[in-house]
Structures are given as structure tokens and as C-alpha cells.
Amino acid sequence: MKIKVGIVGATGYTGEELIKTLQYHPYVELSFATSNSHTGKKLSELFPSLSKWRNLSLIESKPESIGDVDVVFLCLPAGESFKFAKYAISQNIKVIDLGPDFRFLNPSNYQIWYNTEHTLPELLEKTAYGLPEFFRDKIKNAQIIANPGCYPTSILLGTLPLLIENVIEADCIISDSKSGMTGAGKTPSQRTHFVSANENINLYSPGRSHRHVGEIEEKLFLLTGKNTKVLFNPQTVPVNRGILSTIYCKLKENTDKNIVYNIYEHYYGNEPFVRLAKDFYPDLHIVQNTNYCYIHILQPESTQFLVIVSVIDNLGKGASKQAIQNFNIMFDLEETTCLI
User: 3-148+318-330 — its CATH code?
Assistant: First the structure.
């Protein structure tokens, strides 16, 4: 059985990661890939290391480019997925959106955080948020999967079990998150130029100004019923890929860290891609080019605080590989196919 797949926006970092990973998927046939900046070029011209689909030519990105496929991956900036998703659903084609356009259950939240109207609120009831550890059953039956943001993936996996079990306070969650440069996308900016990024750490959109704050808080409320307040300080660091989130939370009572680890074990013990790093500090090297999330906790003495360290690859569990995990669930395949 081959599942016919298309990719819109195939030459950005997430599109490239999708193609390079999906070439090893035994059930995938790539039917088309689009790129406005490289229309007409063969995939082998851009990605010489490919072993499959080398002669597939890139086509223009427009809804009518979506041909006879079973599912389309959308790797597009905010506001660009609507027209493609609308067309795909009208043709009974499933959608996995790696952009932000379907991540909010409440369309007014999208408008608040992205400063633009959500033009397809009627499709949100057909959408599942693509964090499998908490939304697996909904993913199985969804027509659209909203792949989570990279930072929200690391922060939600770290905090959700403890908020659900009422171990930490909801009104004070602080995350210091450092990301590799691929998280900023391929389009260059002053912050991403070599001389700005090299030997430097750049803070951007701190406090509550980053769009991912809204996504994180909505999902925390949806799963816990608690109005959380997240302070979020994202930074880019001069490495290619990876996210390390150091999350500071206040314990409701003095809870031993072994009890906290037991809570994580309860939620993630059977999860294929979440691992507890009880005896070591996880770093970027152990997650790069994988779909894993590693979690470690620290409990500073004589304080009521808990420190959660959550580490992922921003292009892996934070984007393309999690999208493939969702694809596997959507089509009732072994969840780990081509990911381990």
C-alpha cells in the first residue's frame, strides 16, 4: 500500500526535513512538491543527497497544484495555509499543516496573536492539535492536523502532566528557551545574518510578546481547565538545530522529585518519543535529527520551585518528524515508522 503525498512549500527547512525523512518511509509516494522560488528545478538540484524522488520537478505553489493525493503537508508561513487547506478538504484530501493557521481551537485567539482574521473557522471542528501524547485519539479521525509549534512542543510536554496532576501553580510558568538558527526559517534577517548570530545569543519577543505564548496557554487551559500565565523568553543560539527549554515552576507543596518523575512515568512510560533523563542533563546533541523529547527535573534546595529541562530538535519533534508521527497515526500505521 502506497499513500500518495504532496508537500506545499517544499524547500524551506521544514519541507526539506520532510522530504529527507519521508524518502525512508515504506508506505509513502511523493506525488508533488511545490516551491515558488525554485519552480521547475528537480529535487536533486536542491538536495543532492536524496536517494528517492531525485527527478521530481518542483511546481508552483497554488491550490490547483494539489493533485490526486491522499494527504498534503503544508509548510507555509502564517496566513498562507488557508487557501490550500480549503481546496484540499473540498477534494477530500487530508491536511497536515506545519504552520500556525489551525493551531488555535478558538479563532479569536488566532486573531489576537497573529493580528489577522481566521478565515476558515468552520474547519476547526475537523482539526486535531498534533501533539500525539495528549491528542492521539483525535488525530486518528481528523481531516486536518495542526502540527504544534516547536517551542510549544517542548514546553507543553514538560508542564502538562504536572498541571493536570495539580503539582505546580498555574499562574507562574517561566520558560527560557534556546533554539538553533533553523527555527528562524530560511529568509534572512538582521538577527540571522552570520555576523549577528555567530558567537552570540539573541533574545527576541520576550515576556508575553511571542505568538507561541497564546498557543501554549490555550492548550494548557484546554487540557487542565486552568488559566495559566506563561512568561516566555526565546533566544536563538549559533547552532543549526535543537531547542533546550528551561522551565521554572512553583510547586503547590514540597513534593519530592521522585514523585514528580513518577507522574511523568505515568504519562509517558508507554510513549515512544518522550524519554526521562533522570541521571543526566539532556543536551542538543542527543535529540538532533530525532523525534525525541528528553525531560529532566531539578529541585533547588530550600525553595518551592521546580526546574524542568525539556529538549527537542526544532525540526524533528518540533516540526517535520512530529508531522510524520501524526501522519502515521492518521493513516493507522505503526507510529514509529521511519522515525527510529
Answer: 3.40.50.720
Question: What is the domain partition of the chain in residue ranges?
Answer: 3-148+318-330, 151-313
Q: Which residues are catalytic?
A: 150
Residue 310: what are its φ and ψ, rounded to 5°? Answer: -125, 120
What's the pLDDT tens digit per position in 147-181?
999 999 999 999 999 999 999 999 989 999 999 99
Contact call for residues 174 and 247 (beta carbons, < 8 A): yes
Query: With a cut of 70, which residues of the chain have pLDDT below it?
Result: none
Residue 186 is predicted with a pLDDT of 84
So what's the pLDDT on residue 267? 98
Tell me how far apart the alpha carbons of residues 272 and 253 are, in angstroms, rounded to a whole number: 31
- In this predicted model, what pLDDT tens digit does every residue of 188-200 receive, in sequence order? 888 888 888 899 9
Residue 296 and residue 281 in contact, taking contact as beta carbons nearer than 8 Å: yes
d(CA 292, CA 311): 8
Length reported for the chain = 340
Q: What is the pLDDT of residue 310?
A: 98
Q: What is the CA 147 to chain-centroid distance, rounded?
A: 5
CA 165 from centre of chain = 24
Considering the entire predicted model, what is its pTM? 0.97
Question: What is the model's pLDDT at position 326?
Answer: 98
151-313: CATH superfamily: Dihydrodipicolinate Reductase; domain 2 (3.30.360.10)
Q: Which residues lie below 8 Å from residue 289, measured CB to CB, with a gap of 6+?
A: 241, 313, 316
